[in-house]
Design goal:
By secondary structure, the chain is an alpha+beta fold. It is 22% helix and 28% strand. It is built from 14 helices and 32 strands. A hairpin with a 4-residue loop joins strand 11 (252-259) and strand 12. Residues 13-28 and 80-108 have low confidence and may be disordered.
């Protein structure tokens, strides 16, 4: 929670004027003004009561999202016997690893009487009265209930969301203009804890030859990309602090997106449909996944799918082209790509770029930092899966996820999807590379890294293809890793191999 945001909300934000507005196209139907919801969360009890009365008289279930957006920024009562300023906001749910609110019998009367806690209780009390649900201060319970429903939101919900988040950074307002188009639910968009570009992207970062990267050890994790024969390594220890890099490799302008929360690194071609887009980090999340934005239209894009989800580009059919990436060690990458370059430590920013320094606590447990509508317990939340996307397999096909643990056990793994055959070749260092399989059947991989087919012929992995000793070529296919929970949250239809 940001204390400054809570303070602005408690101040009321604006006076109570014009609390009703007519809904265009729905004759005789009125909605409370979006401003009334801000006032209802303010510290002025009289004004808040008037606003609450206005909301209650014209209540619709879809308004719950606005109340929960506000409550998220207000302090929860702490446990009994603990000073309010020292009380943890959340307790851990041992089954899911998600955050939960304190139980009613753990709430101290002193903490409950704080202005912010009173305002939050005011909102949750209205929710209980109007919905018949009894989640009390458990915002997680309220959100799951909300996300299970399909009630239409307030007509001015985008404006409300933009104005609320503008109290963190005015730049958020530009993402939610009146009548904005969206292909995802706006009540599932959450603030990630930073302002717009608060996690600074790397713009045309410096790079160095492999010989100049003495600061990298052989066992350090890198994300390797090869474009038109040019190879570059992006060390995890750098990219985790920036989450987005705009670069040029092999003559192609790249946007490399790293969503640390869901464990995905995806290189995209920055050009699509004859247009070049410059991307930044919005500071917002959808189902724990990074939303990026383009400078040109201020549309929000899914970092996971490479498509616009909020803004003027929604519905245009635009989708960024995905390029291949491999997660491996510096030693293995450098051996296989001796001419590679690598990001320089001279980024222009002061960060602890030590191996494993960024997000150490988050990566060290199976707990989640942000909620998702549903979890699939066939794998641990942060178990890594190797993902083959629908747009790669073919229209109408379900995506495929393969547990990385399975690929470690089977260094040649074949599967079918969308009427096509594929093969995943896993190196001794654990790097996963996807190829089309064609009509060939593979038996295994030897110590030199070559694959053998059923006829005993050898195949050599190359940056863009698997090449048979007799000249046949099987093209490489773009794929990437992800944490299982993050991928499943947005693609529950995924076919899982484990």
């Amino acid at each position: 929670m940001s204390p400054s945001v809570a303070a602005v909300i408690l101040a009321g934000g604006m006076c109570v004027v014009g609390l009703t507005t007519h809904i265009a196209g729905q004759a005789g139907v009125d909605e409370p003004s979006w401003k009334a919801f801000l006032v209802a969360a303010g510290s002025d009890e009289g004004a808040a009561r008037k606003a609450l009365d206005e909301i209650e008289r014209r209540w619709r279930p879809g308004y719950a999202g606005m109340l929960l957006d506000l409550a998220r920024f207000l302090p929860s009562p702490g446990p009994a016997g603990v000073p309010a300023e020292a009380a943890p906001r959340f307790f851990d749910d041992p089954d899911t690893g998600l955050a939960t609110a304190p139980r009613r019998d753990e709430v101290s009367s002193a903490a409950a009487e704080r202005p912010g806690a009173r305002a939050r209780r005011r909102l949750t009390t209205l929710l209980e009265k109007q919905t018949g649900q009894r989640f009390g201060d458990d915002l997680r319970g309220w959100r799951r209930w909300l996300w299970s429903r399909t009630d239409p939101p307030h007509a001015d919900y985008p404006v409300f969301k933009g104005e609320l988040y503008a109290r963190i950074d005015p730049g958020f307002r530009t993402f939610f203009p009146a009548g904005v188009k969206a292909s995802i639910r706006l009540n599932e968009i959450d603030w990630g804890g930073v302002p717009v570009n608060g996690i600074p992207p790397l713009r045309d970062p410096k790079n160095t030859a492999a010989a100049g990267a003495g600061w990298l050890r052989d066992d350090h994790v890198v994300f390797g990309v090869t474009v038109n024969g040019e190879a570059r390594a992006y060390p995890k220890r750098i990219l985790a602090w920036h989450e987005l890099a705009t670069d040029r490799l092999g003559g192609v302008d790249l946007t490399i997106v790293y969503c640390t929360l869901c464990g995905t690194v995806i290189p995209y071609d920055s050009r699509i449909g004859g247009r070049h887009f410059t991307f930044g980090t919005s500071g917002l999340l959808y189902r724990s996944n990074k939303l990026m934005f383009d400078d040109e239209t201020r549309s929000l894009w899914s970092a996971l799918d490479g498509a616009p989800v909020v803004g003027s580009l929604v519905g245009t059919g635009l989708r960024l082209k995905t390029l291949a990436v491999v997660t491996t060690t510096w030693g293995e990458w450098r051996r296989d790509h001796p001419a590679t370059t690598v990001l320089s430590l001279d980024t222009g920013f002061k960060r602890d770029y030590g191996e494993g320094a960024a997000y150490r606590d988050y990566f060290g447990t199976d707990r989640l930092m942000f909620e998702v509508p549903a979890l699939d317990k066939r794998l641990r939340n942060k178990a890594e899966v190797f993902v083959v996307r629908s747009d790669v397999i073919g229209a109408g096909s379900a995506p495929v996820a393969i547990a990385v643990d399975l690929l470690r056990r089977q260094n040649v793994f074949a599967f079918d999807a969308g009427g096509k055959g594929f093969i995943v070749a896993t190196s001794a260092g654990g790097a996963n590379v996807l190829y089309e399989r064609g009509a060939f059947t593979f038996e295994g991989r030897d110590g030199s890294g070559q694959l053998r087919d059923r006829e005993g012929k050898r195949w050599t992995p190359m940056p863009d293809a698997l090449v048979r000793e007799t000249g046949e070529r099987l093209p490489r296919v773009a794929a990437h890793r992800a944490f299982w929970f993050g991928w499943y949250a947005q693609h529950p239809e995924t076919v899982l191999y484990r």
